[in-house]
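Here is an idea for our session: we take a single protein and study its fold together. To get us started, please write out a protein record for me. Start from the sequence, derive the backbone structure tokens from it, and show both lines together. Go ahead whenever you are ready, and we will take it from there:
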Amino acid sequence: MAGAGSNWLSGVNVVLVMAYGSLVFVLLFIFVKRQIMRFAMKSRRGPHVPVGQHAPKDLKEEIDIRLSRVQDIKYEPRLLAEDDSRLLQLETQGCYNYLYRMKALDAIRTSEIPFHTEGRYPKSLIGKNFCAYLLELRNSSTSFKGMRKALIDTLLDGYESARYGTGVFGKLEYLQYQDALNELANMFPYSLQPVC
């Protein structure tokens, strides 16, 4: 009787060991296959399904060339239109700092500061080029450099605060920034201002 019970237990043990072994094998297979697919998809630049998968080779190359050009396209859109309904919220009480931030960033586009005219700063990247232009203007040696330095610092601080700042940028800060922007625009002779 004791021999038959131990025989049965060893049979159950063999079946359990085989079941666990096959389960571990299946799990390892799934894990390895998933890792291989994950690294294969990570190495591609695009989506998880290759674009133009069943297309001819020359079409695939053309698709890859055009997709690589997309990374070089940079454009800063206008944040608030003149007739945007969100501008009506500024007259009501409340915290609408984001609207003043958007207005401050759009004010650069409408200002008459000629940072596009020399051709070094393209019109598509307004903010980045505007900051570079102001830094160049601040460091240049001109007759009214001392008077402009504080004004340009005010503009740079206002732009950084409006675009990247985490503090309050409300009506008062926007008006200070807009006044500084208008004052700098008035310093330029009309011959340098772009014709719209």
